[in-house]
Write a structure and sequence with these properties.
Keywords: Kelch repeat, Repeat
CATH architecture of the largest domain: 6 Propeller
CATH class of the largest domain: Mainly Beta
Shape: elongated
Organism: Paramecium octaurelia
InterPro entries: BTB/POZ_dom (IPR000210), Kelch_1 (IPR006652)
Helix content: 10-25%
Strand order of the largest sheet: 20-21-24-25-1-30-27-26
Protein name: BTB domain-containing protein
Largest sheet: 8 strands, mixed
Strand content: 25-35%
Number of strands: 33
């Protein structure tokens, strides 16, 4: 109802955090291009229900599992086709509340429950202070209660708050001070953090909003927050809570604009920040009326529209991607190519390293770019063709260390590229203070981490002050427990 086209530009007032985006193509024959649908997570599956495809509403169930979409047949009292409803998971049940049915003055006020194990629908016989019709509202679970901030009813914009008890099927109007409530709106977004319900943005019938309000369940009070750097005014966006942060994606703005940005709200700091999305494949992310499902640290974005274009793509935002191990830039490429020809050559050599009774010819002027070698040549080995005996390193490792200094890369076969090989090379790079080789070893070791190698690689990182590698080990450990 509130979708617009255009390309939203992220404001430049925020500091950036680097994130990763992974694109997964959906099956065009199985999952339609829709907006104002719902998506939930249950047992490693994502359930899509309802939505609008520019021509009609839907009441189909599509399930995403293991990279595939499946259209499923449900039984029981199947809900009428709708959009703008909400879906909330409680144990093994999905509660669908309200929505626009496409006819009549008002939206639906019904509550349907889908048993997610057997795909059986039930129309719930509710009791208590049943709210009126609701559409483009929000629904959030706190304990056993689903809190509904009612949004629109098909005719008016509202700001009443209701709770639905999933154990007793009892509705209750949440009585709060009139002057504390957020102004009426629909097509807003909501999220829960520590028994607090957050309401952001939406459409009030004349303009889009970017205000942020918080309802504290414990004190039964609303408060308007004044965070640092709020996102642009918008409607049709989505929010989700992950690891004590609230993430907001997309939405429609004024003047035919859709946003494709990811914003992060920190409830402790009361501050928003914008997060840079990095993707290997360029694609149009700006949209509104999409769904947003959090599974662990991953955010799944599906569908939505921008103007007359409806999306059926499906992509993932990783809010905690692997730490990026940056490899220090090597020396000038043209110089490395020239020096490479002098590696282990007697021509112009003025120092010889002896390792495991094998000789390596070297050149002081090339090695002296590193502080350890510079001091070695300045104080101990001033004379031509002196021999330096290396006793704490194998020939293969020291040979690779020298080759790296000359060529800017390594000269080793696949057999040598093992955890032990890079451990020894990392140790020597740390000892001889060669930062670009050290970061290369960190990067290489990170690619060899699995459940069998994690403990020892983490130990190596700690012993050799390999901070980038240590951060990667800690990330891997947190994600593979």
């Amino acid at each position: 109802m509130f979708q617009n086209d255009g390309n939203g530009q992220s404001p430049n007032w925020c500091s950036y955090e680097r994130q990763a985006v992974k694109v997964i193509r959906s099956n065009a024959n199985q999952c339609p291009a829709i907006k104002n649908h719902t998506s939930i997570h249950y047992k490693k599956q994502i359930f899509i229900f309802g939505g609008y495809d520019s021509k009609k509403n839907h009441n189909d169930i599509h399930i995403y599992k293991d990279g595939n979409w499946t259209k499923c047949k449900a039984n029981g009292r199947i809900p009428e086709s709708r959009n703008g409803h909400t879906a909330t998971v409680v144990e093994n049940k999905m509660y669908v509340i309200g929505g626009w049915l496409g006819s009549g003055t008002y939206a639906s006020r019904d509550v349907y429950v889908l048993d997610l194990d057997c795909l059986f629908w039930t129309l719930v016989n509710t009791m208590g202070e049943v709210p009126g019709p609701c559409n483009m509202h929000s629904a959030d679970l706190i304990g056993q209660l689903i809190y509904i901030f009612r949004g629109g009813d098909g005719k008016d914009y509202l700001n009443d708050l209701h709770s639905f008890n999933t154990k007793t099927n009892m509705w209750k109007l949440v009585q709060t001070a009139e002057n504390q409530r957020p102004p009426p709106r629909a097509n807003h977004s909501s999220a829960v953090w520590q028994n607090k319900l957050f309401i952001f943005g939406g459409w009030d019938g004349s303009k889009r909003l970017n205000d942020l309000h918080c309802y504290d369940v414990t004190t039964n009070r609303w408060s308007e927050l004044k965070p640092i750097q709020s996102p642009s005014a918008r409607a049709g966006m989505c929010m989700n809570t992950i690891d004590n942060k609230i993430y907001l994606f997309g939405g429609s703005g004024p003047q035919t604009t859709c946003f494709g940005d990811l914003q992060c709200y920190d409830p402790v700091k009361n501050a928003w920040s914008i997060i840079e999305l990095q993707d290997d494949e360029q694609f149009d992310k700006a949209r509104a009326g999409h769904s947003m499902t959090a599974i662990g640290n991953l955010i799944y974005i599906f569908g939505g529209s921008c103007g007359s274009h409806y999306f059926k793509d499906f992509f993932i935002i990783d809010t905690d991607p692997p730490p990026n191990i940056s490899v220090t830039d090597f020396n000038n490429i043209s110089i490395n190519q020239y020096f490479r020809g002098f590696f282990n050559q007697s021509k112009f050599s003025d120092i010889i390293f002896v390792v495991e009774d094998k000789q390596l010819y070297a050149h002081k002027i090339i090695l002296s770019q590193y502080e350890i070698f510079n001091k070695m040549f300045e104080w101990e080995y001033k004379h031509q063709q002196q021999k330096v005996y290396i006793n704490d390193c194998s020939f293969i490792i020291f040979e690779q260390l020298l080759y790296f200094i000359y060529a800017g890369d390594l000269q080793c076969d696949q057999y040598q590229q093992s955890v032990e090989f890079y451990r020894q090379l990392l140790q020597m790079a740390d000892y001889y203070l060669i930062p670009n080789l050290k970061s290369l070893c960190e990067k290489s070791l990170s690619l060899l981490i699995d459940n069998t190698t994690l403990a020892k690689i983490k130990l190596y990182a700690e012993q050799m002050n390999a901070n980038q590698l240590l951060k990667f080990c800690e990330w891997y450990e947190n994600h593979n427990n």
